[in-house]
Amino acid sequence: MNTLTRRSVAATGAFALAAAATGIALTSSPAAAAQTDVPRQPLPTEFTLAVPSDDGTTLAWTGAPDRSELREYPSPAAAADAGLTPFSLIPDANGFAKIVAGGASFGYCLYLGQTTAGTVGAGISKDRCGVAASNWTVTDGRITSPYGYALGNETARVDGTAGLAATASATGADFGIETGFADAVPPTTFDVTSPTTNDPNDRAVLRGRTAPSSTVLVTDRRGSSLVRGTVFTDATGAWEAHIDSPPRGVTELDVLVTVSTGQTVRERSWGTVSYGAGISAASDTTPVGVDGTTSISGTGDPGAAVRVVTGGRADPVEVGRDGTWTIDVTVDRAKRAATSSVVLEMAGVGGQRTVVPVAVRAASLDADVVFPADAAESAYVEGDAEPGSTIEVRATDGAAVGTATTDARGHFEVEVGAPDASGRKDLRVVERSDGEVVAQDDVTADYGAPVRILSPSTGGTLTPGSEVVGTGEPGAEVALELGGKTVHTIVDAGGEWSARFLDAGDRPFALTIPDALRFTERSKPAITGTGTPGAVVRFQPTAGDDTGHTDTTARPDGTWRIAGADLRLTVGQRYDAAVVQRPGSADARTERVRLESDLRPITVTSPEAGATITPDHGYVTFSGTASPGDQLAVRVPGGDRVASTVVRADGTWTIPDVLFPQGQHTARIVGLYGDVDVSFTVASDTGSQLRITTPTEGSTVDADPDFTNPGVRFSGTAAPGAYGGIVDLRDGTVRGFQVDAYGAWQQTLPLREGASHVRVTDAVNAPVELRFTTRWPGR
């Protein structure tokens, strides 16, 4: 074993410690200095410590059950280069000290914990700097834990007070880790008077009696002082302290009362201050009605005020004498997000403020009217809603038009009938779930120009030879009836039509459509023409091949029509088709027509590629052009569909209100005939920089198993005073928070072990999302 001349260091002062590993068991240590109250047992785990000497060099001690050695390094940096992690002993304003890795700026603290074997040990964590287990006391060169390992609302003691001790003496002693078991500080006694009203001035009162001319400090588990000013005992030793209300959501506050004179601790004891029950919602999820409102109920302190702080609007309500409350909330953006949250706050007993987030489920219904290219065919309402829901389409007078059930993707189609003379048809689309209306949307089927007869005028004379003239939607078919006789005609490109009843009868076989037509999957034009009444007219997609043919019969007036919906065409192909009258006969007649699929590339006009946008709360609207009738969906590459729509007959499309968090994104617009990517950046709505500081993207995080608030601890920055929430995107769990006056926030969210995906929102910014891995120690 290497040896080194022993050097002395000051017995008190700012020691600098270094540990190369976490989870150091503190059940025993080698005998580095004579300490009669420290049991001597073999060291169970290997670790390394370093302490600077008085001449600036650093002594590093390494130990294991079977070996130990003392080495000298010229500086803490050299010790760090050798694999040691430097620590500093930083005084804290609460009367304790923190053992901080790498200096105060790093913020990784040494704290007491409990190993899987049930022994008390130490660990290093950034998230545990604020807990009681990271508070230490320095007395006569010994660094000790003031009250042991805090476990939930109890204090676990292992044969007394477990502590970490770095020993030194003026005569020069070896440095090492040892556990001090010494109940040297006697307990103090005090009475607690809890507040009984909702008045914030009704504060809890602690009263006790101890040694005269003493200072009394009252702290919480984090070591934060709970009193205003300094509390002193009088000549008889009596003292009284008024403490503020507990943090949000805490109904029982554990307090530590420490009695001291100068730097010496005389007495120390724990106590509990009870507050009201706080606010509690009856359910963590409520549905949003058609009018955008939801009713939330729960329990609380009688007489306390319950109000909405974010996520909606509502008049405050008062908790009844029976301890129950109900509040009707108009939810923000109820029709834009399938799930969101409403955060409620109650000012309870003693001014205690409890925040409760409630998830709200708003039915998502997006409907649009789609028209085929054939103006004579039926339009239909198409869209997306919750999978498995019932869709009803009704006219404005309440008459039923059609129904459908959404498929597994949430898609539906309802035919709304052929065009009529009105030109427009206003429709109401209703979504039902379990028989109840959960959402509705109003759409208009605009069939274009209504059919009108210009000549003869009303009351005029009409004979079989008279010409009937009128207007209508270009491409629409007009049927005229007179005395049991019917004649058909097509509205021309200028919106005009004409016909004579003498036209009925034999006509030459010809097409009354252009000889070149374009079509899409959903929009196929009709094939129309004239011929011999009663004759069979066949459409053959490929000339000379009647496979997939479609037949019709010429009407008595000599006109015929094959509906576009009956054409068996494949998008992406071109057809030089044949239309044959009396196919297979000696007097068969043939006309030619060319049909070519109308495939337009998908374009995105908004958001612009590479643009930085500041959308309202992160809701982005996409728009552009594509093939009419094509169904488009917005996807994040590698992810599921976010939202979808159908391209209108004019080739334009819009997908509104797609939620994106802050940051750079590449969205993919996917259609039946192709896809296109658009990259953009979502910026903060207000520039207040909603951020998640911890955890970090892609990291592996150990959840805190604390009994009162288990889960992963989050922290970040946002607009001062704003309310927000953290949402587990895997199961919908929500936890609310308020940003403090310095722009900081923190909250704990219970997460399942494994891959985690969370979204943080506040009342003013686009949200922030984070992916990481959650790990539960000891599982």
TrEMBL record:
Residue span, Bacterial Ig domain: 378-430
PROSITE patterns in alphabetical order: TAT
Pfam families: Big_6
Keyword terms: Signal
Superkingdom field: Bacteria
Keyword Signal on entry: yes
Signal peptide start-end: 1-33
Xref: InterPro entries: Big_6, Ig-like_fold, TAT_signal
NCBIfam families: Ca_tandemer
Stated name of the protein: Bacterial Ig domain-containing protein
Species: Curtobacterium luteum
